[in-house]
Amino acid sequence: MLEASNNNELPVIPGKRYFTIGEVSDLCDVKPHVLRYWEQEFPKLKPVKRRGNRRYYQRQDVIMIRQIRSLLYEHGYTIGGARQKLEGEESREDVTRSHQIIAQLRTELEEVLDILKN
C-alpha cells in the first residue's frame, strides 16, 4: 500500500469502528465536499450510509482517503491516474493473496494425502 510522506503530519487514526464525515475531514485534512466528490470518482470508497443518508467511514476508508490525498496532492496524479494506480495495486495484492491461498491449500492437501497413505 502507498504510504504518504506527510501522513506522519496527519493525526493518528483512533481505534474507532466508524467515523463521521467531519471526523474524516479532520483526520485527512480534506474538506467534506471533496470527500463526497471522491466517493463518486473512486468506486472502492463506499462509506456506510445510515439514517438521513449520513455517511460513516470505516478505518480502511480513512486509509484509502489518505492514499488518494497523497497521490493527488503530493505526487501530482490526476483523478484518473490515481484511480488507475489504486486499481493496479489492488490487483497485485489480489494476485499475491491468491498465491498465498493456493500454497496453503496445497500444503494442507499434501498433509491429507500423507494421512490417507498411512
Description:
- There is one protein chain.
- The chain has 118 residues and is mainly alpha-helical.
- It has a single domain, classed as Multidrug-efflux Transporter Regulator, Chain: A, Domain 2 (Orthogonal Bundle), CATH 1.10.1660.
- It contains 4 helices and 3 strands; from the N terminus they run βααββαα.
- The protein has helices at residues 21-28, 32-41, 59-74, 79-117, and strands at residues 19-20, 48-50, 54-57.
- It has a 3-stranded antiparallel beta sheet with strand order 1-3-2.
- A hairpin with a 3-residue loop joins strand 2 (48-50) and strand 3 (54-57).
- It is elongated, with a radius of gyration of 19 Å.
- Mean pLDDT is 86; it is low at 1-6.
Oligomer: single chain
Which residues sit in consecutive blocks of at least 5 with pLDDT less than 50? 1-6
Main-sheet strand order equals 1-3-2
Number of helical runs? 4
Structural class by helix and strand composition: mainly alpha
Share in β-strands: 5-15%
**SSE order, as H and E?**
EHHEEHH
CATH architecture: Orthogonal Bundle
Q: What's the overall average pLDDT, rounded?
A: 86
What is the CA-based Rg, rounded? 19 Å
CATH classification class: Mainly Alpha
The share of residues in helices is 55-70%
User: How does the major sheet shape up?
Assistant: 3 strands, antiparallel
The tally of domains stands at: 1
* Alpha carbon gap, first and last residue: 45 Å
Count the strands? 3
Task: List the topology elements.
Elements: E1 19-20, H1 21-28, H2 32-41, E2 48-50, E3 54-57, H3 59-74, H4 79-117
Essential attributes:
single chain; mainly alpha; 118 residues; 4 helices; 3-stranded antiparallel β-sheet; Multidrug-efflux Transporter Regulator, Chain: A, Domain 2
